[in-house]
Amino acid sequence: MDEHRTARPRILDSHHHYWRIGGPGQAWPDAGWPLIHRDFLPTDLRAATDGLDLVGTVLVQSQPDDRDTDWMLALAAEDTSILAVVGWVALDDAGAPARIAQLARHPKLVGLRPMLQSMDDSDWILRDACAPAIDAMLTHGLRFDALVQPRHLP
Fold it and tell me: Could you report the per-residue pLDDT of 52-66, keeping only the tens digit for each?
């Protein structure tokens, strides 16, 4: 029998979230999301993927809060299934370049996501105040994860 037809597919989850209701900086999911308004942690992912050949995941921030990024990086340090982390930094904050330099020392941090889709100002990322943070991301080899809507494309 053909080996490729019987082998289980290997899966890399390139975008997933963990959350702990009431955890550091956690505002989502709230009670308005009843199907997911519960903790979702590494043990939950393992249970949900039991029987699959999950080779690893990329953990992506779901909260616009430094505490969430710190929590995710702590999880990643303990859990070998988390291969990479996309965190969050207030890119328009004067302290952003220093925060980015600090976070970049974590070997699993690969990028940052400012949650542009939730901001009313479609041109927010173009503000002069964001430029030093973008430069810091480039300096440290981090990727910009742009979750956008059609209004952001121009």
Answer: 999 999 999 999 999
